[in-house]
Specification:
- The protein has 315 residues and is of the alpha/beta class.
- It folds into three domains: 2-65, Nucleic acid-binding proteins (OB fold (Dihydrolipoamide Acetyltransferase, E2P), Beta Barrel), CATH 2.40.50.140; 71-240, Rossmann fold (3-Layer(aba) Sandwich); 254-309, Probable gtpase engc, domain 3 (Ribonucleotide Reductase Protein R1, domain 1, Orthogonal Bundle), CATH 1.10.40.50.
- It has seven helices and 13 strands.
- The strands form three sheets. A six-stranded mixed β-sheet has the order 10-9-8-11-13-12, covered by helices on one side. A five-stranded mixed β-barrel has the order 1-2-3-5-4.
- Helix 1 crosses helix 7 (297-309).
- It is globular, with a radius of gyration of 21 Å.
- The two termini are 37 Å apart.
Length: 315
């Protein structure tokens, strides 16, 4: 039978077959996919083949993993030199961010966008808690929105508390598999509960058979969006990821980093040297664009900071 992985806790999985039947699943042996070594060979969103193991208990065995069209990773919380696949087979990602309570750093936003670019996943930035804005935050949001929209990203403002902008975000979900991500406290679970109250999502909720004593911070879960209800998008799936404190970049060499900044990627061929790192080299088109205002200084500083943080010996 074909099935989709909806939840993973490391050793057990929840899967649904094509008819919507749900099973507890275990992995048969060890899988290694496309040479990718990760802490979790099976991830939420994976298409798998299953065989019935115990019909009374509703448990199955995962015998094969289908080819992924994409996936998104982070560094493993347990080992910074290993991957942890957050989710696979995504149509888009929504990064929830906030300007206060808590404040999302631009460095975190840029790291997330780089990771999405590297795995060919379109990203949208959603700033929540706009009801907390005063003049300072309103000016900052306008600035950030201008920076990211200029390089092709969609940026939305929302207040779940005041029910402002929620429909615009909700409408993005129709008929797509969408990853929701961001720091703890930015409102991912609140958004899911506000839009789809029947899901009754609780943060840090771990079911009895799967998660005793486990760090829930590393596990994602997929939900089917309710179809056919007035005001709700038909079809589609959302993948809720627990709050990510930091996002280490995996398998991105220093010389490739600029490829994942769209505004830099457009100029790379104009640099004097093929292997230009856009730091101190003469004839650098990227640095010239920064000086002339074509590339925002904040994005260039972010590039330099991230470049400095990549340990070439890590991978």
């Amino acid at each position: 039978m074909n099935a989709t992985v909806y939840k993973s806790t490391g050793s057990w999985y929840i899967v649904k077959d094509d008819s919507g039947n749900q099973f507890n699943a275990r992995m048969l042996g060890k899988f290694k996919i496309d040479g990718l070594t990760s802490t979790n060979p099976i991830a939420v969103g994976d298409q798998v083949n299953i065989e019935m193991e115990n019909e009374l208990e509703g448990s199955v065995t995962i015998t094969e993993i289908g080819k992924r069209k994409n996936y998104i990773t982070r560094t493993s919380p347990a080992n910074k030199h290993q991957h942890h696949i957050i989710a696979s087979n995504l149509d888009q990602s929504l990064l929830f961010a906030t300007l206060k309570d808590p404040k999302t750093s631009q460095g975190f936003i840029d790291r997330f966008l780089i990771t999405s670019e590297a795995y060919h996943i379109p990203s949208i930035i959603v700033f929540n808690k706009s009801d907390l804005y005063r003049k300072k935050e309103e000016d900052k949001f306008a600035e950030v929105k201008a920076i990211y929209e200029a390089i092709g990203y969609q940026v939305l403002s929302m207040s779940i508390e005041k029910e402002k902008g929620v429909d615009a975000v909700k409408n993005l979900l129709k008929d797509k598999v969408t990853l929701l991500s961001g720091h703890s406290g930015v409102g991912k679970s609140t958004f899911i509960n506000a839009v789809f109250p029947e899901l009754k999502l609780k943060t840090q909720d771990v079911s009895g058979w799967s998660g005793k004593g486990l760090h829930t911070t590393t596990f994602a879960e997929m939900f089917d969006l309710p179809a056919g209800q007035t005001g709700l998008p038909d079809g589609g799936k959302i993948i809720d990821t627990p709050g990510i404190r930091e996002l280490g970049l995996v398998d991105i060499p220093k010389e490739e980093l600029s490829h994942y900044f769209p505004e830099m990627r457009a100029l790379i061929n104009d640099c004097k040297f093929n292997n230009c790192m856009h730091l101190n080299e003469p004839g650098c088109a990227v640095k010239l664009a920064v000086e002339e205002g074509g590339i925002h200084m904040d994005r260039y500083i972010s590039y330099c900071n991230i470049l400095d943080s990549i340990n070439e010996k890590s991978y």
